UniProtKB/TrEMBL annotation:
<dbReference type="InterPro" id="IPR012657">
    <property type="entry name" value="23S_rRNA-intervening_sequence"/>
</dbReference>
<dbReference type="Pfam" id="PF05635">
    <property type="entry name" value="23S_rRNA_IVP"/>
</dbReference>
<dbReference type="InterPro" id="IPR036583">
    <property type="entry name" value="23S_rRNA_IVS_sf"/>
</dbReference>
<protein>
    <submittedName>
        <fullName>Four helix bundle protein</fullName>
    </submittedName>
</protein>
Length: 121
């Protein structure tokens, strides 16, 4: 299918993972197996599913993994809001990260639509 590292959405989501891990390092120990773990897993799921989809045989399979990545981005969006409301992340930092998540979601939607269009021709 291709090299996942060639996709801008993969690079953007990889950078997002690094930011999320950095943020969750300072969460309370009581959240280690709860919110910290959930946020880290949701963030990692985005670029991981892009990479896995690139390794599949068909464009349809790739699209399926892009949808899974999109679902994880939506999950992370909510978890970031929750962490902010719980006071684990400053509001301004949370807004900036949520803005980045929104950009990743838009990029994924665009890539899905591009691939779907190419399948119709």
């Amino acid at each position: 299918m291709g090299n996942y590292k060639n996709y801008k959405v993969w690079e953007k989501s990889h950078q997002l993972v690094l930011k999320v891990y950095s943020l969750t390092k300072v969460f309370p120990k009581s959240e280690q197996y709860n919110l910290t773990s959930q946020m880290n897993r949701a963030s990692v799921s985005i670029p991981t599913n892009i990479a896995e989809g690139c390794g599949r045989e068909t464009q349809k399979e790739f699209i399926r993994f892009l949808y899974i990545a999109s679902g994880s981005a939506h999950e992370l969006d909510y978890l970031m809001l929750l962490a902010s409301d719980l006071g684990y992340i400053e509001s301004e930092i949370s807004k900036n990260i949520i803005s980045e998540i929104d950009e990743v979601k838009k990029m994924l939607a665009s890539l899905i639509n591009t691939i779907k269009t190419s399948l119709k021709t």
